[in-house]
Structure formats: C-alpha cells, structure tokens
Amino acid sequence: MARLPRLSVPGFVHHAIQRGHNRQPIFVDAADYETMLTMLGEGLRQHQIALHGYVLMPDHFHLLATPEGDGLPLLMQSLGRRYVRYFNDRHGRSGTLWDGRYRCTVIEPQQHLLDALTYLDLNPVRAGLAASAADWRWSSHAHYVGAAVDRLVTPPPQFWALGNTPFAREQAWAYRVAAGVAPKTQRALTDALLGGWALGDAAFVADLQAKSGRRVLKGRAGRPRADSSKTDEKSVEDG
Prior knowledge:
Elements: E1 13-19, H1 30-47, E2 49-57, E3 60-67, H2 71-91, E4 103-107, H3 109-121, H4 123-126, H5 141-144, H6 157-160, H7 166-179, H8 183-195, H9 202-212, H10 226-237
Antiparallel strand pairs: 1-3, 1-4, 2-3
Helix pairs in contact: 1-2, 8-10
C-alpha cells in the first residue's frame, strides 16, 4: 500500500521529528548543536516558518512550528542535506545520517500546543540526560522561563495568555513544566507524531481534512503495525 504524504498545511501547528539512522548520534559536541541551530535559523527565515519550540537530542531532534506556506518540507529537506554534509565532513564519515524520512503531525493549538511544548522541554529528562528541563542547553526551554533570549523562537498566543507580565508568564511556564504531561496526553502526542495523524477535536479535524486533501485520522481497517510502532514509540519516548 502506498504511504500517505505527510501532513503539511499552511497556518497550522506542526510537530516534526527527525532521528539518526539506527539511533546513531547526530550531535557529538557543542559545535554540532550550534551548527544545527544556525542552519535552522537560516531555514526558518528563508521558508517563512514560525518556530514555537525545539529540542536537540544526541540522536534526534523535535520541532514545533507553524509554516506560513508550504515551507516545512522544504526546510526539513534542506536542513537534512546541509547538516549531513557538514557532519560527514567534520567527523570524517560518509553515507546516510538520518533514519529515513522525518515524521510530522498537525496538532490543535488550543488543546495541545502547550502540552507539546512541555513534552519537548521534558524530553532530556525522560531520556536521563538532565535532572530538569533547565539543565539541558539545547532546547527552547530557557527562552520560555526567561533564562535566555532565543531569537529562533516565536511564542504562540497560548503562551502569552499564561500571564499579563513576562515574569508571570515565565513563572507559569516553569510551574507547568515542573508538573509535567499526563501519561495519557504524552501517549496521544507520541501516537500522533509517529503515525502522522492529526491531534484535535472533531471540528479541528474536519477543517484540516478539507484543507489538506488527505485522510488525517487513522482508519479502522487494515493490519496493525504492532512491531514497528512499538519500536518507533520506544525511540521517541526514550528521548
């Protein structure tokens, strides 16, 4: 069966992930992380994409973003090609770096955007790489708690609604991340990302369906991909 094209719809919030082949490292040291962020910033400007959050992990990275047009696939393709050339040249290697195509889903911002941001912030904690989100340098968390100014980040309206002052919003965000994401919500975010299915209420899904021109929810028919999904799910949840 031919696979569905990825969900990519202008003006909607997208959650994307790209992983290293066989979970191999894609970042070896600070220079690699910084190079990826530089390339990401250039791509965001070129393709007119608002980045709401990100986390770079040793063997994969997540982006939470809203494209103005059809720029997200172009960003991921160009970023992937450029970074592979850089990484291979710098580390004296050749061949593929990525584990196939990136994965992507579209989420309803009112219900799920802040949960998705929290999910990204806590990825290093779930992976055992940091005791808290604040201890991981390579994410958008520091911007949201006021510890740094990250020019890559465009906070969404849902974040601005957390308080009337910068301090109130930053404190509210720190509390939210400390509280974490409910297991059921985490599972929904993971399943939507891995499956490429929309995450939102019926009205949101209907609107997305009309705009995307492809099926956006998993159908009931068909053979389940139990083994594959368990492997992929483990890869994401382990960070």
